[in-house]
Amino acid sequence: MAQLIVRQIEEKVVKKLKQQAGAHGVSMEEEHRRILRESLLGKAGKKPSFREYLSQMPNVGEDRDFEREPQIDRPVEL
Description:
The protein has helices at 11-24, 28-41, 50-55. The protein is mainly α. The protein has a domain at 11-56.
């Protein structure tokens, strides 16, 4: 994989990158990679986390709407 060195970055940009990386729980280098990836390739390359995926599900009814009826026991041969 290639390496990229970026020089002469304003201090306020570095501070903001550090804050953003901390908020996302990653290193500054990883945050930098993510920013570049998303800005150049778009967000389509990023898969949502399980939590994000669940939060996108619509509210389609009450929990009781999905309750199962009691099942009758039946003999099973093993």
